[in-house]
Amino acid sequence: MKIMKNKHANTSSRATARGGRYARTLHERGAQSYSDENRLQVDPKTRQPLPPRSQPGYYAGFSTLSQQEFWDEATRSVVRARVEQVPPIRYFSAEEVRLMQAICDRLLPQDDRDDAHKIPVVNYIDDRLYNRRIDGYRFEDMPEDHEAHRLGLQAIEAIAQHMFHSSFIQLEPLEQDQVLQSIHDCKPPAGHDIWQKMSIMHYWLLIMQDVLDAYYAHPYAWDEVGFGGPAYPRGYMRLEGGKPEPWEVHEQRYEWAAPPSSLSGEYSPVGGEGEHKQQTPGQEGTH
Known about the structure:
Order of helices and strands: HHHHHHHHH
Oligomer: single chain
């Protein structure tokens, strides 16, 4: 089971110097080599790694930002800011941001992207927590989101130390996956004092939702999935038959296999086998 998502594609839009540099800075702080070939998807026939690209995936040549002249100014400003104005780290400490980056690198790997097109997920999570933006509700067995994230980092580090006698950021990818899988399965071998303060299932929901929200709000992720961008003020015309709009491109599939350094391909329900009563809606598929 891959606790993170497998990705097929990315973007043709170029990152600005500021966004690209900041994303690279965070990744360079990690202990693992981000260019490690064992982290790359592989060609299932040759078993050779597929190199990072500016736009890997099924929608080669598509760029959501190329359509910005058809958006109104308010929409254009909001979307461009996600590329050009990456928020600085203000909530997490330097040590916490390194750990959070390592976690996000496993929950949602971006090894198929070149450095200029990696999405700064941690920055956007940090920005939400720093500004105390919430969804308008909170589970009764959870502390406030910013505190839950901080407790979660402590628990993940405790599990890593218990299982492998090392910091999470020093572990090999497969070992990191095992740490995270213990949380996914709601069966952590350590950090029990922290899980007394918050629900492990709801923590998993929180961190996955934040990672995915930050990622899929970015135009580069829209390019990856072939999303044509905001429909306002220009609407969509071809609503049936799965046909692309005139400004979109046809899907171009290719074969790939998960990297050897991940648990991708293994499946178990959230909460572990036989633990369906703990299953969180919307968190079933974890690859």
